[in-house]
# Entry
Amino acid sequence: MLRLERVSKAFGTSADRVHAVREIDLQLRRGDFLTIIGSNGAGKSTLLNLIAGTSPPTSGRIFLKDRDVTGIPAYRRARWIGRIVQDPVAGTVPSMTVAENLALAMKRSGRRLTRAITRGRLREMLDAMRRLGMGLEDRLNDPVSTLSGGERQALTVAMATLAPPDLLLLDEHTASLDPANALAITRMTGAFIEEAGLTTIMVTHNMEQAIAWGDRLVMMHNGRIVHSLAGDEKKKASVGDLVELFSRRHIADDELLLGVAY
Ligand SMILES: Nc1ncnc2c1ncn2[C@@H]1O[C@H](COP(=O)(O)OP(=O)(O)OP(=O)(O)O)[C@@H](O)[C@H]1O
Ligand SMILES: [Mg+2]
# Structure
């Protein structure tokens, strides 16, 4: 499904060069769910940006569904890749209503777009909104700009469920939410991924989440994958084990420790 071959990304000029991602090899099969942890500046978001195509790698190649997509721009990769980032504003059109945003998501899924919100489509929207349990089914005609961050992020996840991507990239998508909403959105996202069997990469600072979700976990540091856990080893891992791994590598990061709280 996804293959990275010695992918590197450096920013800046030779004088102030930052090697954000260094020679990463990574392979995901269909249905794999990978979680990524790592300290601030480890290169996690840069890696997801390279996969999404928002910036080209300095070297290396990226293959998606067996085709070389290294030179393919983000807007064309968006046919296969869904992306939810920390900022809830990013995934929606704020000036449009909830229903119009949902209609856009349905259009992206390749179904024929009629201008009208048909009765069938409305039923589907109402079902999707009821499942969120946030009362958004009563706000279909409200502009998205009037929703709270948590409500908007829930809507973004629902939009992804209406148009399941081949590959879902989550970059700390609950980080800007309060603990209760973060937990609710995390559960909702996890249930959706498992239900749809989506191929997923999730970046998180929350080590409990990183252990609880997915079938593989990698730790990044200084642009490299420095540790990898899968199968029973991952299932048996505790937050303490991960903290131990971090400290063994002299990675001091208060945020990682704070992430344990919920
Ligand atoms: N557009 C850019 N221009 C210059 N440097 C950049 C750019 N984007 C990222 N970097 C640098 O690359 C390194 C990796 O950044 P990145 O955002 O990938 O880290 P991260 O692991 O996502 O961190 P965080 O946990 O804080 O989100 C950092 O040193 C960062 O300053
Ligand atoms: Mg980041």
